[in-house]
């Protein structure tokens, strides 16, 4: 019995170590993506290109290109090479930097920085919760995904309605949705590490890390944009 107990402890420790290593890889790639987005956005705004882009048809082309990259990467991750997946993720982060350069035109630098730190704090707290909680968040994840679809639909409808009340409602609900998705995604990534992805070889590890990084990247960026609506100081 003692031998079996020691075996179980050793196996549990091995799973935890594998999960920790995998999580570190995911968060590293997420940080790289966020850093690339931030640098591109700041450079585009500082150079004056963002001001030209906002009134150009190229802006909408970039938006659709971003959506296409996310859908393609999600749908083809099992079939493409790890290097291709990595390149697509970095390409998406760079394109997102181009479109997010508009943020520097609309809001003051100090309010952007303050909102970034607020976002980082909330994101970090929910990431820790996703790591330590014993509660299975898969059911909540399905509910939050439905909430995300609702936000997208409501946002499209509000393009035509131009309702300020709906705008603020979408923003508030969006904060709760992306805060919840952060905890859900972190727990899902942790489970991937414990379930043996580290034993599947370099290709599987890298592709899994990229998809995990993309999920967390999207959670962070969208949470930041929702919070910016509340805390961002307008330049006008």
Automatic annotation (TrEMBL):
Residues spanning the membrane: 21-43, 49-73, 85-106, 112-132, 139-160, 166-187, 208-231
Membrane topology note: Multi-pass membrane protein
GO CC terms of this entry: plasma membrane
Keyword Cell membrane belongs to the record: no
InterPro entries reported in the protein's UniProt record: Bax_inhibitor_1-related
Keywords in alphabetical order: Membrane, Transmembrane, Transmembrane helix
Cleavable signal peptide: none
Location within or outside the cell: Membrane
Pfam families according to UniProt: Bax1-I
Coiled coil: none
Family: Belongs to the BI1 family.
Record's protein name: FtsH-interacting integral membrane protein
Native source organism of the sequence: Desulfocapsa sulfexigens (strain DSM 10523 / SB164P1)
């Amino acid at each position: 019995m003692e031998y079996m107990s020691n075996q179980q402890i050793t196996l549990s420790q091995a799973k935890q170590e594998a999960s920790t290593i995998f999580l570190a890889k995911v968060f590293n790639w997420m940080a790289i993506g966020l850093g690339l987005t931030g640098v591109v956005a700041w450079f585009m705004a500082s150079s004056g290109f963002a001001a030209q882009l906002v009134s150009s048809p190229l802006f909408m082309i970039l938006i659709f290109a971003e959506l296409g990259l996310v859908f393609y990467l999600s749908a083809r991750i099992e079939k493409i090479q790890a290097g291709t997946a990595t390149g697509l993720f970095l390409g998406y982060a760079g394109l997102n930097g181009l479109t997010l350069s508009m943020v520097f035109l609309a809001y003051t630098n100090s309010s952007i920085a303050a909102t970034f730190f607020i976002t980082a704090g909330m994101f970090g707290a929910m990431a820790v919760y996703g790591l330590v909680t014993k509660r299975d968040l898969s059911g909540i994840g399905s509910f939050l995904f439905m909430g995300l679809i609702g936000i997208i639909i409501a946002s499209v409808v509000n393009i035509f309605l131009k309702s300020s009340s709906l705008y603020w409602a979408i923003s508030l609900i969006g904060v709760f949705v992306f805060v919840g998705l952060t905890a859900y995604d972190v727990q899902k990534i942790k489970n991937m590490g414990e379930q043996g992805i580290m034993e599947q070889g370099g290709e599987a590890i890298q592709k899994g890390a990229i998809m995990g990084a993309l999920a967390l990247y999207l959670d962070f960026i969208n949470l930041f944009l929702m919070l910016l609506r509340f805390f961002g100081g307008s330049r006008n």
